[in-house]
Design brief:
- The protein is mainly β.
- It has a domain of 71 residues: Jelly Rolls, CATH 2.60.120.
- Helices cover 0% and strands 47% of the residues.
- The protein contains no helices and 9 strands.
- The strands form 2 sheets. It has a 5-stranded antiparallel β-sheet with strand order 1-2-9-4-7, with no helix packed on it.
Length: 110
C-alpha cells in the first residue's frame, strides 16, 4: 500500500506521539522529485534490516531511542539526536525503545 503525502503548504505535526506511538503507523509526510520526508515509527525491538538507498539520508530521533548500524559501528540516537549517512551506505535500524524519528531521503542526486 502506498503511503499518503501531505499537500504542498499543509503543516505536518512531528511532535512526540507519546502514548499514541504504538497505534501510529509510519507515515510519509511529503515527497518531491528531490526529497522525501517520513515519520518513522518503530516499537521496541523492531528492526529494519540492512539496506541502502542511492541518496543521502538523515535520521532525527523524536522520541525513544534507536540504534543505527552503519559503516562498521552502532550509534545510538536519543531524542534530538541526528545522524547523516551518504547515499549508498548500508545501514540497519533497531528500536531500543518505542520510538519515532524524522527520516529524510535525498531522491535526486545531481
Amino acid at each position: 500500500m502506498a503511503l499518503l503525502h501531505a499537500a504542498p503548504g499543509e503543516p505536518c505535526d512531528v511532535r512526540p506521539l507519546g502514548t499514541a506511538l504504538r497505534q501510529t503507523p509510519t507515515t510519509a509526510l511529503f515527497k518531491s522529485e528531490q526529497l522525501e520526508v517520513i515519520r518513522l515509527v518503530l516499537t521496541k525491538g523492531k528492526v529494519l534490516p540492512p539496506h541502502k538507498v542511492p541518496g543521502a539520508i538523515t535520521i532525527q530521533c523524536i522520541e525513544g531511542s534507536l540504534d543505527i548500524q552503519a559503516q562498521g559501528t552502532v550509534r545510538r540516537l536519543a531524542p534530538g539526536g541526528l545522524l547523516f549517512l551518504p547515499g549508498g551506505v548500508v545501514h540497519a535500524v533497531t528500536a531500543v525503545d518505542d520510538s519515532s524519528a524524522l527520516l529524510t531521503i535525498v531522491l535526486a542526486v545531481e
